[in-house]
UniProtKB/TrEMBL annotation:
It is an enzyme of class 6 (ligase). Keywords: ATP-binding, Cell cycle, Cell division, DNA damage, DNA recombination, DNA repair, DNA replication, Ligase, Nucleotide-binding, Nucleus. The keyword Cell division applies. This is DNA ligase. It is found in: Nucleus. Its EC number is 6.5.1.1. GO terms for cellular component: mitochondrion; nucleus. The keyword Ribosomal protein does not apply. It comes from Saitoella complicata (strain BCRC 22490 / CBS 7301 / JCM 7358 / NBRC 10748 / NRRL Y-17804). The chain holds residues 169 to 807 of 813 of the full protein. It comes from the Eukaryota. Belongs to the ATP-dependent DNA ligase family. GO terms for molecular function: ATP binding; DNA binding; DNA ligase (ATP) activity.
Length: 639
C-alpha cells in the first residue's frame, strides 16, 4: 500500500499519449522484474508501470498488458508468437553484420538468443541514433509477423525483424527477440499481471479524485478482477471496460459470453471411495462417468455461430467440423445461445461403443473436411454453463443439469448426456465405478450436486469435483502430466533414439520446471522414434533459469530440451529424493520428491508445459500417500 500512495507520474511521461508509450520504458520494467525473485517486488514494479500507463497513455494499456504476458491476441484467435530459432539467428546476423556462425556460437555459450541480439547490437558502431521504438509500433509489427503466411513469408518476417532490431537501443533487442520466440520468461505469472492491473486501476481511480486508495478497495478490486477474468478471459473486453468504468460493478458488466471460451473447471484426485464419502459427508453429490477423450467446450452465439474449444481455449472447430454440423440436430428449438462443457470421445459406429483415447489421438489435428473424417466422435455433455442470454455458473449443478436436459436432445453415437447416478452409498458408487470401466471409461467424476458449492468454478481444480480412476488402487491415485526436460542416449536396440528421459513438474510461483524422475519404460519402439523426431527440434545447449535441475551428477541428461512436450506418466508411489528438485521445501527443507517406478502412458498435446502437474499437486499427493500409509500401517491405501 505504501508503494501505491507514493506515486506521481514522471515529467518525462507527458508526451506518451502523443508519441505512444516508449518500448524502452516497458523493457526497463522487464529488466527490474527480472532482477528480483521476490513476488511482491515483481508485483509492485508491474502495477506501478501499469499505473503510469493509465495516467499518461491509457490507450496503450491493452497492448502493454499483452506484451507483458507475451501474447498479442487471445488464445482462441490462434495468433501466436514462437518464431523459430533459425529465422531469428538469420535476422540477428543480417541486422548486425555478424556471421551466422558467430551468432550461433554466442548462442551456444549464453543459451539465450535475446542476450546474443543485445550483445551483437552493442558491437555495432552506431552512426546515428534511431527513432525510439514505441509499444504500439512494436505491437503491430509483432502482430504482422505472427499473421504473415504463405509464399515468401520467411523473407517478409526477417525483413520486419531486421527493421525492428535496427531501431533497438539498450536492452530492447533482448526483450524483443525473447518476445518473438514466445519466451519472455521474466518469471511474471499471468496471475500477478491481473493483480497488478487491479491495483493500478483502483489506485488510478483514487488518483483522479485526488485521494489515496484504501487497502480494502484494492483487495476487493483484485478479487473482482480475478473472478471476472475467469468468467470472461478476454483482455480485449475487460481492459477498455476497466479504463472507462473502473473495477466497481465490473462483474455485472463483464460476464460469461458465448464466443469467449473460459478455462474449464478441474477435479482433484482421490484414492478411495471412502475418501469421496468423507469429503461429501452430509452433502448431496452425484457420480458421472469419466469419459476418456478430449475436453470440448461448445459455444453457440446468439447470431448462430458455433465453435468448439479445447481445454486450453484453442479453437478446435476446424478439427471437429462433424461436431459443429451435428449441433442443429441436437439443439432444441428454444435454445438460441449456450456454452456446453463436454468430452469428445472416439466412437465405434458398428459396435456402438466408446473407443480408447489412443484411437482419438490418431485423428487429424488440423483443419479437416467433414467428409474425410475417419475417426468418428461422440460428444458426451456433462455441464451447461450458459443458456439463452443467462450465465448459469452460480446455479447449482442439479439445476444446470436439468436445464441441459431440456435444452438438448440425445442422438445415439453423436450426442449423449454423460451417464450419471445419484446414489449416495458406498455400494452404489462401487457398482457404478465397475460399470463405468466395463463401458470403457476411466472411472468416475463425483461432484457436489446441490447448494452454493455446486456452482461451476472456471479454471479451478476444485474439491467440489473429485475423480476416481479405475487404476487408482495400483498407483498414487492419479497419473501425472510432466514436461520432458532432457534425454539420455539410447543403448543397444535404442542407439538411434533417446533411450530414457528426464521429466519435470511445474512450479507456477517460481515459474520453473523442477526435475522429478528419469523414465525409460512404457514406450513402444514407435513411441521412441516419434519422440526422437519431435524432441530433437527442441534441443538447447544447457538448462536455463526456468529449470530447477541438477546440472551434474549421475542423473544429468545427455541433452536438454526447451520445455515444450507434456507426457502422462503413472507411478507406483512417491519418495523423497536428494537429487530431484520437485516440490523441494514443501514437504522437506532439502529434499525434493521423485517418482518410483514411473511408466510412460501417453503424450498430452492438449496441455501446455505450464499446465503440467504442479509442484504443489505433487506435494499434496505425497502427503496423501504418507497419511494412507500411516492409516493402514504401511502398504498402499485401498478402498
Ligand atoms: P486427467 O484427464 O488426466 O484426469 P486433467 O488434468 O486433464 O486430468 P482432471 O480435472 O484431472 O483433468 O480430470 C477431468 C477431465 O476429465 C476433464 O478435463 C474432462 O476432459 C474429463 N471428463 C470426462 N468425463 C467427465 C465428466 N463427466 N465431468 C467432468 N470431466 C470429465
Amino acid at each position: 500500500a505504501e508503494e501505491i500512495k507514493a506515486f506521481k507520474p514522471a515529467e518525462k511521461t507527458k508526451d506518451w499519449e502523443k508519441e505512444g508509450v516508449p518500448y524502452a520504458a516497458l523493457c526497463a520494467t522487464f529488466e527490474k522484474i527480472e532482477s528480483t525473485t521476490k513476488r511482491l517486488e515483481i508485483l509492485s514494479y508491474t502495477s506501478k508501470f501499469f499505473r503510469t500507463v493509465i495516467a499518461a497513455s491509457p490507450g496503450s494499456l491493452l497492448q502493454v498488458v499483452y506484451l507483458t504476458i507475451n501474447r498479442i491476441a487471445p488464445d482462441y484467435e490462434g495468433v501466436e508468437l514462437g518464431i523459430g530459432e533459425g529465422l531469428l539467428i538469420k535476422a540477428i546476423s543480417e541486422a548486425t553484420g555478424r556471421s551466422i556462425a558467430q551468432v550461433k556460437q554466442d548462442y551456444q555459450e549464453t543459451g539465450d538468443l535475446g542476450t546474443v541480439a543485445q550483445r551483437s547490437k552493442g558491437m555495432q558502431p552506431t552512426m546515428f541514433k534511431p527513432k525510439p521504438l514505441t509499444v504500439p509500433s512494436v505491437f503491430s509489427n509483432l502482430k504482422e509477423i505472427a499473421t504473415t503466411s504463405g509464399q515468401s513469408s520467411q523473407a517478409k518476417k526477417i525483413g520486419i525483424i531486421k527493421k525492428l532490431l535496427s531501431s533497438c537501443q539498450g536492452n530492447e533487442a533482448k526483450y524483443l527477440i525473447r518476445s518473438l520466440e514466445g519466451k519472455l520468461r521474466i518469471r511474471l505469472a499471468e496471475k500477478t499481471v491481473l493483480t497488478a492491473l487491479a491495483q493500478a486501476v483502483v489506485a488510478s481511480e483514487a488518483d483522479k479524485k485526488g485521494k489515496i486508495a484504501k487497502t480494502e478497495d484494492i483487495v476487493q478490486g483484485e478479487d473482482t478482477l480475478k473472478t471476472v477474468f475467469s468468467n470472461l478471459p478476454s483482455y480485449d473486453i475487460i481492459v477498455p471496460e476497466l479504463l472507462n468504468n473502473g473495477v466497481n460493478g465490473l462483474g455485472d458488466r463483464c460476464t460469461l459470453t458465448p464466443g469467449v471460451p473460459l478455462k474449464p473447471m478441474l477435479a482433484k484426485p482421490t484414492k478411495a471411495i471412502t475418501e469421496v464419502l468423507d469429503r461429501f459427508e452430509n452433502q448431496k453429490f452425484t457420480c458421472e462417468y469419466k469419459y476418456d477423450g478430449e475436453r470440448a467446450q461448445i459455444h453457440l452465439t446468439p447470431d448462430g455461430k458455433s465453435k468448439v474449444y479445447s481445454r486450453n481455449s484453442e479453437d478446435m472447430s476446424g478439427r471437429y467440423p462433424d461436431i459443429v454440423s451435428r449441433l442443429e440436430r441436437v439443439v432444441n428449438d428454444a435454445t438460441k445461445s449456450f456454452v456446453l462443457d463436454c468430452e469428445a470421445v472416439a466412437w465405434d459406429i458398428q459396435e456402438k461403443k466408446i473407443l480408447p483415447f489412443q484411437v482419438l489421438s490418431t485423428r487429424k489435428r488440423k483443419d479437416v473436411q467433414e467428409a474425410d473424417v475417419k475417426i468418428k466422435v461422440c460428444v458426451f455433455a456433462f455441464d451447461l454453463l450458459y443458456l439463452n442470454g443467462e450465465s448459469l455458473l452460480t446455479k447449482s449443478l442439479s439445476e444446470r443439469r436439468t436445464k441441459m436436459h431440456e435444452a438438448f436432445q440425445e442422438v445415439e453415437g453423436e450426442f449423449l448426456f454423460a451417464k450419471w447416478m445419484d446414489g449416495q452409498s458406498i455400494e452404489e458408487i462401487q457398482f457404478f465405478l465397475d460399470e463405468s470401466v466395463k463401458d470403457s471409461c476411466e472411472g468416475l467424476m463425483v461432484k457436489m450436486l446441490e447448494g452454493p458449492e455446486s456452482g461451476y468454478e472456471p479454471s479451478k481444480r476444485s474439491r467440489n469435483w473429485l475423480k476416481i480412476k479405475k487404476d487408482y488402487l495400483a498407483g498414487v491415485g492419479d497419473s501425472l502430466d510432466l514436461v520432458v526436460l532432457g534425454a539420455y542416449h539410447g543403448r543397444g536396440k535404442r542407439t538411434n533414439v533417446y533411450g530414457a528421459f528426464l521429466l519435470g513438474c511445474y512450479n507456477p510461483e517460481a515459474e520453473q520446471w523442477e526435475s522429478i524422475c528419469k523414465v525409460g519404460t512404457g514406450f513402444s519402439e514407435e513411441d521412441l522414434e516419434n519422440h526422437h523426431k519431435v524432441l530433437k527440434e527442441h534441443v538447447i545447449v544447457k538448462p536455463k533459469g526456468y529449470y530447477s535441475v541438477a546440472d551434474s551428477g549421475p542423473n544429468k541428461p545427455d541433452v536438454w530440451f526447451e520445455p515444450r512436450v507434456v507426457w502422462e506418466l503413472l507411478t507406483a508411489d512417491l519418495s523423497l529424493s536428494p537429487t530431484y528438485k520437485a516440490a523441494i521445501g514443501m514437504v522437506n527443507a532439502e529434499k525434493g520428491i521423485s517418482l518410483r517406478f514411473p511408466r510412460y502412458l501417453r503424450v498430452r498435446d492438449d496441455k501446455k508445459p505450464e499446465e503440467a502437474t504442479t509442484s504443489e499437486q505433487v506435494a499434496e499427493m505425497y502427503r496423501a500417500q504418507a497419511s494412507t500409509q500411516k492409516a493402514s500401517g504401511g502398504g498402499a491405501g485401498g478402498v
